[in-house]
Amino acid sequence: MKRAFSLAAVLLLFGCALPALAQVVPRTLAFQGRLAKPDGTPVADTTSLTLTFRLYDAPTSGNKLWEQTLANSVAVRNGVFAASLNFAANYTNGKTLETTFGSSSFTPYLEIQVGSDAPLAPRQPFTSVAYSFYAATALSIPDGSVTQSKIANGAVGSAQLASGLLGGFWNLTGNAGTDPTTHFLGTTDTQPLVFRTNNKEAMRLLTNGSLGIGANSPQSALHIAPISGITIGQNSVTGGYTALTINLSANTNGNAQLQAVKAAGSTYGDLILNPSSGNVGIGTTVPASTLDVNGAANVAGNLSAASVTVSGDLLTKGWVGIGTNSPNFTLDVNGSISATAGLYAASASIPKLNGGVLIDNYGGANTSLKLEQHGSNFIVRPYDAGSTRTVVENTAGTLYFNSRSSFLGAPRANAALGVYNSGYSYAIDTVGDLLVEGTGYSNNGFYLSSDARYKTHVQTLPGALDTVLALRGVGYDWDRQKWPDKGFAEGRQVGFLAQELETVLPQLVHTDKEGYKSVNYASVAPILVEAVKTLNGKVETQQKQIESQQRRIEQLERQSARLADLEAKLNALLSARK
Length: 578
Fold this sequence. Notes:
Layout: E1 4-10, E2 28-36, E3 46-56, E4 64-77, E5 80-86, H1 97-101, E6 109-114, E7 124-125, E8 193-197, E9 200-205, E10 211-213, E11 222-224, E12 230-232, E13 243-248, E14 256-263, E15 267-268, E16 280-282, E17 291-293, E18 297-299, E19 314-316, E20 320-322, E21 331-333, E22 357-358, E23 361-362, E24 366-367, E25 369-373, E26 376-382, E27 390-394, E28 399-401, H2 405-408, E29 417-419, H3 464-469, E30 474-476, E31 493-495, H4 498-504, E32 509-511, E33 517-519, H5 524-577
Parallel strand pairs: 10-11, 16-17, 18-19, 20-21, 28-29
Antiparallel strand pairs: 1-2, 2-5, 3-4, 3-6, 4-5, 6-7, 8-9, 9-10, 12-13, 13-14, 14-15, 22-25, 23-24, 25-26, 26-27, 30-31, 32-33
């Protein structure tokens, strides 16, 4: 049903100018209208009509500013209705009461919709009466609204302000009767507190409590930026007092300095740390001793201490005595030395212990032990940087173990390692595998343990001949180009392929951790022995069979001769009868 609408009356809300009412001005608007049919007759009376009210910033289309629906609650009598519109809420698109009714860029237009019918047209503009909403701001001065341009020069002074109005301000000549719970110097928002001198920032206090002096972005609780330094105490100290100065150097490679000063100039005092008790840590937050240095310590003068524990570098320009007050060497130790991280000496000219021991650094990269005497260099070092393998070598010649003087007179010129038996049962006794990458030589052969007392479950190898027949002997050349570090021999070689042998005799093939295989050639011999014995048994059996067959042949030959003789005699007899 189409309905006609007329705007009957609007109640003024913010027309009161009494200061006492400034905080109680309502945000509702009493609205009254009349609904009629197209022929002008009023709509039927009801107590449950649904009306929806909307505000737009244009007579058509535009942006919706506010909306409120009174569902099934509007009474109509003789076509007349009354409604209370709540402008304290229901705004859309980020609008508020002030931005809706206090803007000069647009005029609000009211749209009304009855139930689910199409909105009534046209929209009705709000006249100046509706702008009484914005009149509420006239009862107070908004924050930040009093500016320099709004006050004439000298027109408003303390004489024009009411008594007590400045009670919330600090007096430049001092203040009395302050309450620290409510009176303070600072900000109430998230902005820092800035102090200026000569209109130049000198100090800044951030909201997190960080104070910067000469630093507008303090990085700690107290951040002092001037390079000129900090003095705690008096600049020119008299009467025996000492001040503490903290200075910062003004270059990119500079440093920070802490100095005790007795007077201006070059008179300095003593700097004492923890005079009563406690530890001092340098490079550590958990000092375990009176002075705990985590890192390098450089002492140019004398260092005297009951005990010194060093976990990093300790560098000295003089001699160091441990267990003695009168060192005669760069490092003079009266007692034993235990090193868990290595010992280092930078120069071979440093005195050696007992004339023959030098702790050195191999190539400046890998920590090592070097014993040097009479041109012999005994080296213990890692295989390479970061390696878990260790190399023991004599870089000047042959390395001997357990040697007697009789052997040293004529060492083998082509031997890198000499191990000699000095009255023991064995020169080398190893439990585990022995790896030789190259060729092994022995004057008296190699022996493998084979005592019957070591063995159980002994039985003759079955099927040895079949096993041997399943093997393939090959000739080959070692791939020396691909594996230069293996020490493979030159020339043509004979043997087995481990992968092939493994399919027949897996117990004779060993696979290392990297998957490469080796063959126990010596253990092939027992199989060959049993194979030869089996073959020999077959030969003997065949020989017996051949001898038996030979005797049979000889017997058949004698019988054949007799038959031939009888045949001849028979033929002669037959011929005689004819």
